[in-house]
Design a protein that fits this description.
Strand content: under 5%
Largest sheet: 3 strands, antiparallel
Number of helices: 19
Distance between the termini: 35 Å
Number of strands: 7
CATH class of the largest domain: Mainly Alpha
Shape: globular
Radius of gyration: 24 Å
Structural class: mainly alpha
Length: 592
């Protein structure tokens, strides 16, 4: 079978650099123009906003729960572990089923799943407001997380298919979309605080239901027809669905995360037999999932993407950040309610800097991602995280809000938004258009799983410090903030691990016309396997040229046939775009 670029002629440059060029020049494509699927800019803006509300679902629930914990605990008589389940059940359900729904969306269609999940989210939000027991509320929060898992992959997949080529417009769109996760938490906290103050905690869930009824109405108008090919239900479709992989990931993530959430409230703590069994079984099933995916012909998650060092590092840095950011937000809100005695409305007001700062940071991210090295943005984000958590962890109960908490909240959203924006753009470039929903599922699974794991670890730390009693000496002598500070210092320690990892990244500017995007160039052997005779060295490089001079438009990770308007394949993961002048690579001046 002929490979995508075997029919294309090759041109060799002086020295060792070789490139494969297309036989005919492509027609110019304006990547900054409004996509043809939209009839107007208003429709485009509304669609991006609706997609952003999809990724905000789970974090809106977590944010809303954060400021009503004290009210719910008093009303329903919940234990500390039940409170953490209130937040963790949504993330657990979302994290367990994201890959499943990502595969469903890619194979059987995205639009129907996207709209249906939002309708059901509104229904279950309404039902949660009528909960009479802790168990009912925890279960309904989990179902809401399930609906979040069903909406994010198709929403992200549609966005990635509409904005396939690197561009400034794509940067702005994905900066807005990425804001949904961290900003959903913040606005969920603010709106929930206001609703609870005016009525009661149940009003928070009713408000979520109303919001998503409006979102569904806007979605019916703005969501375009999804042109992606779908698969009819058949034996072959079931084979491509990877049923075994789906079962392994759902059961593995569910058991492992469930054990972490149950451990602190179990009769014998972490030594309780059923906690240990769930923990071990979950770990074994997740390991089995990795082995299965490496062997199966139609894997749920293509394991080859992890061979890209930058991809693995970006996910790891994001993971470390999300083991801390939602955790800090939960415990700082609980501290304000339990120790400071703030009402839900006052908690919302004190957390308002996160909302305002988050909007500004996302605007900045969308404007600079094509100008500034994204490695630098990740490093700034990781450093901001550490600064934020240290400020939270070193304050006393009587410390000034403006000296500690205010700058800490601002730095937290700098870390969350920079890391989330960069990672989201990079991950969506790691799989072809036909697998964009599963790409979104991978990304979201990491963040949701981190919330559950982080909550389990931090709850264990909190309970251990509480069991020890109030400190009689040292920095926190007689201060009831000590158990909360212990969770914040855990956050600082785990986030700090991401800073040195940034030194090994080689991510350039994303979506910048005229600049080669970050990635690796294959060895001569791999290039020949793709049909070219070249001997490009395995190193990272960028062309020193300007638009209109045959420069490379960008590196974009897709796989598929190469045509006149398609990127030119040079490896199994990466492709290169050319300008209309179609000058050969050999004319470029490369630097590492």
């Amino acid at each position: 079978m002929e490979r995508p670029n075997e029919s294309l002629p090759a041109e060799k440059s002086e020295g060792t650099t070789t490139a494969v060029v297309a036989a005919a020049p492509p027609r110019p494509i304006d990547d900054e123009a409004r996509p043809d699927v939209f009839s107007s800019t208003v429709q485009e803006i509304l669609f991006v906003a609706v997609a952003t509300m999809a990724i905000a679902m789970s974090s809106l629930v977590s944010g809303a729960v954060t400021v009503i914990t004290a009210e719910v605990q008093n009303d329903l008589g919940m234990t500390t572990a039940q409170l953490t389940w209130l937040s963790g059940s949504s993330s657990l359900a979302a994290g367990s089923f994201l890959l499943f729904f990502g595969r469903v969306a890619d194979l059987f269609g995205r639009k129907a799943l996207f709209l249906g999940s939002m309708v059901l989210f509104a229904v279950f939000s309404l039902a949660a407001g009528f909960s009479q027991t802790p168990l009912q509320l925890d279960i309904l929060n989990g179902v809401m997380g399930l609906m979040s898992a069903a909406s994010v992959p198709p929403g992200q997949g549609m966005l990635a298919n509409i904005y396939q080529r690197p561009s400034k417009r794509k940067n702005r769109v994905f900066a807005c979309f990425s804001a949904g996760n961290p900003m959903g938490f913040v606005f969920g906290s603010v709106f929930s605080g206001i609703a609870t103050q005016l009525f009661n905690w149940r009003a928070s869930y009713f408000l979520l239901a109303i919001i998503y009824v409006v979102v569904v109405a806007l979605a019916l108008f703005s969501v375009p027809v999804d042109p992606s090919p779908t698969t009819a239900l058949s034996v072959q479709a079931v084979k491509k669905f990877d049923v075994v992989g789906t079962i392994l990931t759902i059961a593995g993530i569910g058991m492992f995360s469930g054990a972490l959430s149950l451990g602190s409230d179990a009769p014998q703590g972490w030594q309780t037999p059923y906690v240990l069994v769930l923990l071990i079984l979950g770990a074994v099933l997740m390991a089995s999932f990795i082995l299965w995916e490496n062997w199966y012909s139609y894997p749920l998650v293509p394991m080859s993407i992890w061979r890209d060092r930058d991809f693995s590092l970006v996910i790891t840095i994001l993971l470390l950040g999300f083991l801390a950011f939602p955790i800090m937000s939960f415990w700082i809100a609980l501290f304000m309610q339990k120790i400071k005695g703030y009402s839900p409305l006052l908690v919302a007001v004190h957390m308002l800097p996160m909302a305002i700062g988050g909007i500004l940071v996302n605007l900045i991210a969308g404007l600079v991602m094509h100008r500034v090295s994204n490695t630098l943005l990740l490093a700034i984000g990781a450093t901001a995280y550490v600064g934020s958590f240290l400020l939270m962890g070193l304050q006393h109960s009587t410390s000034s809000y403006w000296a500690f908490m205010f700058p800490g909240l601002l730095l937290a959203v700098v870390g969350a938004d920079f890391e989330f924006c960069v990672a989201n753009m990079y991950v969506m470039s790691a799989l072809p258009p036909a697998q964009q929903s599963i790409a979104g599922g991978i990304f979201q699974t990491v963040t949701k799983l981190c919330v559950t794991i982080g909550m389990g670890i931090s709850t264990a730390i909190y309970d251990a410090v509480v069991a020890r009693g109030t400190a009689t000496g040292g920095y926190f002598r007689g201060d009831p903030i000590e158990p909360y500070s212990a969770t914040f210092l855990y956050c600082a320690g785990i986030a700090a691990l991401g800073i040195p990892l940034c030194a090994f990244l080689r991510i350039g500017r994303q979506g910048n016309t005229g600049v080669f995007q970050s990635g690796f160039v294959p060895s001569a052997r791999k290039l020949k396997e793709k049909g070219g005779p070249g001997v490009l060295p395995r190193k990272r490089f960028m062309p020193r040229s300007t638009p209109g001079e045959g420069c490379i438009l960008g590196l974009y990770a897709v796989e598929g046939a190469v045509g006149v308007e398609e990127p030119l394949a040079i490896s199994s993961h990466f492709y290169i775009y050319f300008t209309a002048t179609q000058s050969p690579i050999s004319s470029q001046k490369w630097y590492g």
